[in-house]
Design brief:
mainly alpha
Length: 76
C-alpha cells in the first residue's frame, strides 16, 4: 500500500492542488523548524518530590524524611 498506492495518490493530488496551498507539515519539517534534532542530556537528580530525599537506597536518610523523625530511627 505504502509503496504502490500512496506515491500515485500523492502525484494525482499534487497536480490538482492550487498554487497558494502549502504542503502539509511532516515530522521532518517540524523538526527542522524547531531547530533540528537535539541531543538528549540527562537532568540532575533532584530526588523525590514527596520526601525530598534521594531515590537511591544507599544514601544516608535525611532527618525527618519519609514519615517524620521516627522513620530515620535506627533499630526501631
Amino acid at each position: 500500500l505504502g509503496g504502490e498506492v500512496v506515491p500515485v495518490l500523492r502525484k494525482e493530488l499534487a497536480k490538482d492542488r492550487p498554487e497558494g496551498v502549502a504542503d502539509a507539515p511532516t515530522h521532518e519539517s517540524l523538526v527542522a523548524a524547531a531547530g533540528g534534532a537535539r541531543e538528549a542530556r540527562p537532568r540532575p537528580n533532584r530526588g523525590d518530590n514527596v520526601t525530598g530525599g534521594s531515590p537511591y537506597r544507599d544514601s544516608a536518610p535525611l532527618a525527618g524524611a519519609a514519615f517524620g523523625a521516627a522513620a530515620t530511627r535506627q533499630g526501631a
